[in-house]
């Protein structure tokens, strides 16, 4: 009997406590769980499996790793100028030679008493700033053929195929040294498979045969003549001379540093006359500078080095002796104003001379 009374009292006390708690929490918002708590609890219950990764070779690893790479643009302007002829090169600025001095230095190293290669090629290494007009844009890789005044043995096989109509144009192309010249009959031979385009390194065309040549656009692809690559024009002799004896060069961007471009080509051999080598170098630099973006106040050609294998010595020259250092944007209005100012100055000078004569 006593146990029954005590149990009833405990039930009554519990019921009173529950009623008190229910009186405190009256809103339905408090009864709901906080948003996302159940989802977090479920994620805690899931076991995370750690995958053990073994050794991965360097050429198979993820290429998206952000590595701090060295800037390829060489700048030694902060270094001091050497005061004598004996110094450690890495602590001072690179010496700048004239073209004649650099050629003479390479001739001395290729003397019979040293390398014994008097007719070694004279190579040119050109470093470019490939940034375009906008900071987040870059100049695309380009391949060009620079026309030079003095030809040399470049060691390449260059077969030139010329498409043109008219007896005068065909005879002009043959006299200039084209490998094969023809018109509609050549187009038919190519479409029938009797003539292979892969046997010829360069394809040149006259505008008079362009409507018939469009049928070969799919076969030629990048070899199709166009004015931009200077393979389509009326002066066939000049184009053939350019592609048979000119300097072929390619500007390529670095894979990791898009604003760094590099050109390596040859301008002649060491047994050529110094003035001829210098004129070939001038023509090459002017051709490279013709592709420069329209950026004011910044260099496009950053550094030019002369090298002659098998020697590893590279000699720096001043390229801005042959090309303008900076790009200057000139408008027609400013040029017209300058011409008017020059005319006024001439008129005033003539008047002064006439007054002085009187």
Automatic annotation (TrEMBL):
Q: Name one GO cellular component term.
A: mitochondrion
Chain segments carrying region Disordered: 333-358
Keywords, comma-separated and alphabetical: Mitochondrion, Ribonucleoprotein, Ribosomal protein
- Give the source's domain of life in one word: Eukaryota
Q: Name one GO biological process term.
A: translation
Record localization: Mitochondrion
Instruction: Please list the GO terms describing molecular function.
Output: RNA binding; structural constituent of ribosome
Q: Is Ribosomal protein one of the keywords?
A: yes
Q: Which InterPro entries match?
A: Ribosomal_uL1-like, Ribosomal_uL1/biogenesis, Ribosomal_uL1_3-a/b-sand, Ribosomal_uL1_mit
Gene3D superfamilies per UniProt: 3.30.190.20, 3.40.50.790
Indicate yes or no for the key word Mitochondrion.
yes
User: Which range is the signal sequence, renumbered to this chain?
Assistant: none
Show the SUPFAM superfamilies listed in the entry: Ribosomal protein L1 (SSF56808)
User: Which family does this protein fall into?
Assistant: Belongs to the universal ribosomal protein uL1 family.
Give the protein name, as stated in the record: Large ribosomal subunit protein uL1m
Q: Which organism is it from?
A: Ceratitis capitata
Q: What's the gene?
A: RM01
